[in-house]
C-alpha cells in the first residue's frame, strides 16, 4: 500500500532515537505493526522536538497519520511541541504518562486535545485511570497472550461440599476434534486439529478476547489417554457430572471416535457420558451447509436407521447417562432425518433389544423448529441458537476494514433466557454457554457474543439450574453447558490463560443450594477476634459495621461524637487488615473487631455478630457498611447511599421510643431501600436458597409477597432477628467470593430476613433526613416527606 492516499494523508512514525530502551523497542514494534498492515511511513518525527515545528511537517502537503506511543514527559504550558501540529492525526498506542512526574500533561489544553482525538490507547492502568478521571476516552492495550483478567482464579485447593450430591446435574458438550485424522489433513493440511484454528485467531476490535489459549491442559492431543483422565478429574471436581460427546457418523463412516473409544474401554475413568449425533454435512464454512462440502452426510431412511446400530454399542456402559432409567441420545438436527417417525421407532426397537431399555431421545434446539418434535421425549437447548440477542456491531470499531462479522451482547442475554423459561410449554432441558465466538474459524466474517465474564455466566447458569429443578424432565433435573472444550468457538470450561479456573469455580458454586449436606460444617467463625476490653457501661443499642473502605469508616466514626466503643462491632474481610486496622486503632481502639474470610459479603459476619449482641443483652442494633460507593468514587460524600439516616437514628437514641410506639415494626431502613419480592425478583438462585432455608428451618413455604431491604443496611429490634441465628446451625455454606451479581446465599439472606419478619407479622419502616430532621415512617410504602403522622425527631 502506498504511503499516501487520495485524501492526502501520509503515514508517519516517531523516530527510534530515544534514550529510553523501552520506548525504543515500542517504536520498533509500531513499525512492525505498520509493516503487517502494508503501510510504509514516509515521514519520521522526534517526539521531543518535532511534533509541532518540524521542517518535514512544514514541507508536507497533506496530513500525517502518526502513532504516538511510549512515555511522554511534557511541561505542556511552555512546550511548543505539545499538543502536536494540527496536520497530525494522532493514533495513541501504548501511551504512558506518570501524573506525579508530569502533571502539566493533564492540563486542560492537553486534555482537550486527547478528548478530540480519543480513544487513547494506554499501556498501563495508571495512565488509563489518570486520563479517565479527566474524562478522556481510553483503552487498556495489552497482548491477550498470557494476560490474566482481574477475574482470573487459580485451581481451587478443595471444596467444602460434594457437588456429586447435587439434585441438579450438569452435562457439558464435548468436542473430540483434538487429534489428527486423515480426513482433516486432506481438507485443511497436515497436522490439522482444532488448535490450528485457535492459535491463528486475532482480535477483530478493541476489547475482543482472542485468541483463547489453554492453561492447565495445554495444547493437548486426545490420542493421549492421560488427557482424558485429567479432563474427567477436572470436570468432576467442579461439578460436571458428564460429557455429551459429539458423535460424527457419516453413512457408516466414523470420524474423531478415538476419545470415545478410549473412554468406553477405560472403565476406570470416572465420568458419565452420552452421545450427540452431529448429523450434518461437514463443510468448509463450518456451518453444516451444502456448499463447499468436505464430507457429506447421507440423508436416507436406511442410513439414519443404520446409525443406531453403530451408536448403541456404547449404551451398555454403566457410566452412560440415563434419564428415566433410559439411555440418552441427542440429535443435533432432527429436521434432517429423512423419515423421522419410522427412524425413531426403529431406533427404540434396536435399543430395547441391545440394552433392554428404550431410548430417551432429546432433540437439540439448534435450527427449526423450536418446539418439541413428535417422537422425541424432550428438547434440549443449544445456545447460541434461538437467542434474541442485542446486536452491538455498530458500536465496535473493527481493526479490519473488511470486517463483516456480527457482535452480540452476552450480558443482555439474561433477560431473554428468563423470558424463554417462562414461556416454554413443553419439556425442555435448559442449556447455557460460557461464551461463543467462531471468529477463529470464520475470521472477520464470524460472530461473537461479547462481554462474557464468570459472573455473567454464573447468573445464567443459576437461572437454568432453578428452571431444571422446578421443571424436571423424565423425573430428573439436568443442565447442559456449551461447552467443555469448544475452543475455536470461544465456548470452554477448560481453564485458559485469561480466566484460569474462574468459570469452573463459578460453575460449582451455583450448585450449592441443590447439594445435600453429608455432614454439617462448622458455623461461620471469624479468623481472628479482638473483643472490647469489657462490656461494662454498654448501652441498649449496638452499632454493627462491615468495613472495606478507610475513608467511609472514617466518615462514619468521626461523626459519632458520643459513641461508646464497647457498643461498636466492626467486621472486616481477610486481606483488608493492613489498610483498615490503623484507622480502627486511631478512631475506635476499644471496639469489638472481627476478621472473617472473604466470603458471604456482610451477611456471613452479621450472623456471627448477631449471636454476640444477643449474648450481651442488646435490645436494638444498627447495621451498616463502610464501603466505597459510586457517589464517593465520583467525588461525592461517603454515606450518601442510605447510611446517613441510620447513623442519625443511632445518634438520636430514639429507637426504643419508636419501637415501643409501633410494636409490629421489626426493622427500619433508609427511605427508598424497601423492596417487594414480587417486583424485585432478582436471581433464581435466591429462590433456590430461600426454599432450602424455609425447609430446613421448618418455616413452610415462603410467603408469596414480602418486603426486604435492598441495600441490606437497617436498624431494628434484636428479638425480631433472633431466629436468624438458626441458619448457623447448618454450617458454613456461603459461596466463595467471585464477584457474583446475585443469587448467592448472602444475597438470599437479604430476602430471607423479610421472610422471617413476615412470618412474625412484622413490617419494615423507613427513615429519612429532611432538613436535618429525622422522619420515621411506620409504613414501608409511605414515601419520605409526605407521610402524615410520621414520627419526627429534631
Tell me about the biggest sheet? 11 strands, mixed
DSSP, total strands: 36
Q: Tell me the overall shape.
A: flat
Q: Share of helix among residues?
A: 25-40%
Number of helical stretches of at least 4 residues: 22
State the separation between the terminal residues, measured CA to CA.
76 Å
Write the SSE topology.
Blueprint: E1 9-14, H1 21-36, E2 43-45, H2 55-59, E3 63-71, E4 88-96, H3 108-116, E5 120-122, H4 125-132, E6 138-140, E7 168-174, H5 182-188, H6 194-199, H7 225-237, E8 240-250, E9 253-255, H8 258-265, E10 272-277, E11 282-283, E12 293-295, H9 301-311, E13 322-323, E14 326-331, H10 340-355, E15 360-365, E16 378-381, E17 406-409, H11 413-423, E18 428-429, E19 431-433, E20 436-437, H12 439-442, E21 447-450, H13 454-470, E22 477-482, E23 485-486, E24 491-492, H14 502-510, E25 528-530, E26 541-547, H15 550-558, E27 568-573, H16 577-587, E28 592-596, H17 603-615, E29 620-626, H18 630-633, H19 643-652, H20 655-661, E30 665-670, E31 674-676, H21 684-696, E32 707-709, E33 714-717, H22 745-759, E34 763-770, E35 773-777, E36 791-793
Parallel strand pairs: 1-2, 1-3, 3-4, 5-6, 7-8, 7-22, 8-10, 10-14, 14-15, 15-16, 16-18, 17-21, 19-22, 26-27, 26-29, 27-28, 30-34
Antiparallel strand pairs: 8-9, 11-12, 13-14, 20-21, 23-24, 25-28, 29-33, 30-33, 31-32, 34-35, 35-36
Amino acid at each position: 500500500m502506498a504511503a499516501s492516499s487520495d485524501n492526502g494523508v501520509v503515514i508517519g512514525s516517531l523516530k527510534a532515537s530515544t534514550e529510553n530502551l523501552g520506548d525504543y523497542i515500542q517504536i520498533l514494534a509500531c513499525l512492525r505493526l505498520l509493516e503487517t498492515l502494508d503501510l510504509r511511513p514516509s515521514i519520521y518525527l522526534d517526539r521531543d522536538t518535532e511534533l509541532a515545528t518540524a521542517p518535514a511537517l512544514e514541507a508536507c502537503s497533506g496530513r500525517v497519520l502518526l502513532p504516538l506511543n511510549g512515555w511522554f514527559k511534557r511541561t505542556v504550558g511552555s512546550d511548543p511541541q505539545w499538543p502536536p501540529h494540527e496536520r497530525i492525526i494522532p493514533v495513541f498506542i501504548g501511551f504512558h504518562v506518570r501524573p506525579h512526574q508530569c502533571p502539566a500533561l493533564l492540563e486542560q489544553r492537553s486534555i482537550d486535545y486527547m478528548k478530540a482525538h480519543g480513544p487513547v490507547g494506554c499501556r498501563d492502568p495508571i495512565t488509563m485511570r489518570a486520563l479517565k478521571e479527566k474524562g478522556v476516552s481510553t483503552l487498556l492495550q495489552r497482548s491477550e497472550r498470557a494476560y490474566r483478567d482481574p477475574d482470573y482464579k487459580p485451581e481451587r485447593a478443595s471444596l467444602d461440599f460434594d457437588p456429586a450430591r447435587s439434585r441438579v446435574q450438569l452435562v457439558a458438550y464435548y468436542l473430540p476434534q483434538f487429534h489428527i485424522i486423515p480426513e482433516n489433513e486432506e481438507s485443511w493440511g497436515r497436522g490439522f486439529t482444532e488448535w490450528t484454528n485457535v492459535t491463528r485467531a486475532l482480535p477483530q476490535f478493541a476489547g475482543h478476547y482472542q485468541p483463547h489459549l489453554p492453561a492447565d491442559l495445554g495444547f493437548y492431543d486426545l490420542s493421549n489417554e492421560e488427557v482424558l483422565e485429567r479432563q474427567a478429574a477436572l470436570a468432576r471436581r467442579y461439578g460436571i457430572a458428564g460429557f455429551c460427546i459429539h458423535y460424527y457418523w457419516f453413512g457408516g463412516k466414523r470420524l474423531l471416535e478415538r476419545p470415545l473409544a478410549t473412554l468406553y474401554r477405560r472403565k476406570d475413568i470416572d465420568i458419565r457420558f452420552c452421545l450427540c449425533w452431529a448429523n450434518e454435512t461437514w463443510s468448509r464454512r463450518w456451518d453444516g451447509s451444502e456448499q463447499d462440502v468436505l464430507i457429506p452426510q447421507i440423508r436416507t431412511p436406511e442410513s439414519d436407521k443404520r446409525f443406531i446400530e453403530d451408536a448403541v454399542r456404547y449404551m451398555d456402559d454403566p457410566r452412560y447417562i440415563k434419564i428415566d432409567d433410559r439411555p440418552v441420545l441427542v440429535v443435533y438436527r432432527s429436521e434432517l432425518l429423512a423419515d423421522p417417525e419410522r427412524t425413531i421407532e426403529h431406533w427404540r426397537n434396536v435399543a430395547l433389544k441391545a440394552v433392554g431399555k428404550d431410548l430417551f431421545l432429546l432433540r437439540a434446539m439448534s435450527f427449526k423448529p423450536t418446539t418439541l418434535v413428535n417422537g422425541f421425549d424432550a428438547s434440549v437447548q443449544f445456545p447460541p441458537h434461538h437467542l434474541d440477542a442485542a446486536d452491538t456491531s455498530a458500536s465496535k470499531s473493527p481493526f479490519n476494514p473488511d470486517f463483516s462479522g456480527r457482535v452480540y451482547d452476552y450480558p443482555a442475554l439474561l433477560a431473554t433466557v428468563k423470558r424463554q423459561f417462562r414461556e416454554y410449554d413443553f419439556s425442555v432441558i435448559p442449556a447455557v454457554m460460557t461464551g461463543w465466538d467462531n471468529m477463529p474459524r470464520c475470521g472477520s466474517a464470524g460472530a461473537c457474543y461479547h462481554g462474557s465474564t464468570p459472573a455473567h455466566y454464573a447468573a445464567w447458569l443459576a437461572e437454568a439450574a432453578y428452571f431444571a429443578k422446578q421443571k424436571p424432565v423424565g423425573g430428573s433435573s439436568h443442565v447442559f453447558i456449551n461447552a467443555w472444550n469448544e475452543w475455536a468457538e470461544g465456548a470452554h470450561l477448560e481453564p485458559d490463560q485469561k480466566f484460569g479456573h474462574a468459570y469452573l469455580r463459578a460453575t460449582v458454586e451455583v450448585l450449592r443450594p441443590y447439594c445435600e449436606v453429608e455432614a454439617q460444617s462448622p458455623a461461620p467463625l471469624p479468623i481472628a477476634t479482638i473483643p472490647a476490653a469489657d462490656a461494662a457501661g454498654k448501652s441498649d443499642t449496638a452499632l454493627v459495621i462491615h468495613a472495606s473502605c478507610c475513608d467511609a469508616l472514617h466518615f462514619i466514626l468521626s461523626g459519632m461524637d458520643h459513641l461508646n466503643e464497647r457498643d461498636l462491632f466492626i467486621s472486616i474481610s481477610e486481606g483488608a487488615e493492613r489498610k483498615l486496622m490503623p484507622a480502627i486503632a486511631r478512631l475506635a481502639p476499644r471496639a469489638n473487631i472481627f476478621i472473617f474470610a472473604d466470603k458471604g459479603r456482610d451477611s456471613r459476619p452479621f450472623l456471627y455478630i448477631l449471636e454476640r449482641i444477643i449474648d450481651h443483652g442488646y435490645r436494638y442494633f444498627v447495621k451498616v457498611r463502610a464501603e466505597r460507593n459510586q457517589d464517593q468514587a465520583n467525588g461525592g460524600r461517603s454515606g450518601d447511599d442510605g447510611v446517613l439516616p441510620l447513623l442519625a437514628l443511632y445518634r438520636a437514641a430514639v429507637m426504643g421510643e419508636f419501637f415501643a410506639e409501633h410494636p409490629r415494626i421489626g426493622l427500619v431502613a433508609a427511605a427508598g431501600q424497601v423492596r417487594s419480592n414480587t417486583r424485585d425478583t432478582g436471581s433464581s438462585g435466591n429462590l433456590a436458597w430461600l426454599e432450602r432455608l424455609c425447609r430446613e428451618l421448618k418455616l413452610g413455604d415462603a410467603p408469596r409477597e414480602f418486603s426486604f431491604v435492598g441495600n441490606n443496611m437497617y436498624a431494628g429490634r434484636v428479638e425480631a432477628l433472633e431466629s436468624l441465628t438458626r441458619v448457623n446451625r447448618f454450617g458454613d455454606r456461603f459461596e466463595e467470593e467471585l464477584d457474583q451479581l446475585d443469587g448467592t446465599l448472602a444475597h438470599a439472606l437479604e430476602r430471607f430476613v423479610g421472610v422471617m419478619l413476615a412470618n412474625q407479622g412484622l413490617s419494615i419502616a423507613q427513615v429519612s433526613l429532611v432538613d436535618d430532621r429525622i422522619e420515621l415512617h411506620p409504613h414501608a410504602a409511605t414515601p419520605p416527606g409526605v407521610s402524615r403522622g410520621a414520627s419526627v425527631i429534631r
